[in-house]
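Data card: per-record layout.
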Amino acid sequence: MPWYTVLVLAVAAERLAELVVARRNTRWSLARGGVESGREHYPAMVALHTALLAGCLAEVHLADRPFPPVPGWVMVAAVVAAQALRWWCIRTLGPRWNTRVIVVPGLPRVTGGPYRWLSHPNYVAVAAEGLALPLVHGAWVTALVFTALNAALMVVRVRCEDGALARLPALDARA
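The structure for this 175-residue chain is written out next.
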């Protein structure tokens, strides 16, 4: 079980790294006239993602969940794949990537990298991680609760982001 705690803490550290990147990118976007949308749902998103990490540890430790080797290792691979997809998104969007919805007027929509195939690949990574990370060590309650709450939040988030992106020019910007 200690290795699972290390895994969850590593994901938490990765999330903190994302926040550092996001803060830098927020400054970049706002300096270029960026407009933020969706401020009202952002605190709920932060709380939900924090609860995911806490829930993983709490359920595994308090309910004494065992490590199921075959599905557990498959879920570890899914967590790693989700991280890879997330960082591919971050790299593709460059300074335009953010944990907030900020659109810089005049910049075309990015259609390269994973955005060539999916409109919201980062949210695919979030959904995969939110299901896989708890299931690495059998925390099925956390996986179910996070997945349900995240699905509801993603409806709001995707509508917000799609509305903000609709204001971008229809140019094809291969990144």
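Known properties of this structure: Confidence is low (pLDDT under 50) at residues 171-175. The first strand starts at residue 35 and ends at 37.

See the next section for split statistics.
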